[in-house]
Amino acid sequence: MKQAFENTNKSKVLVDGMTTVCKFPARRVIWMGTQKAIVGMVQILANGNLYMLVAAKHPGDLTSFQPEFDRLVGGFTLKGEFGTDF
Question: How far apart are CA 56 and CA 50, in angstroms?
Answer without folding.
Answer: 19
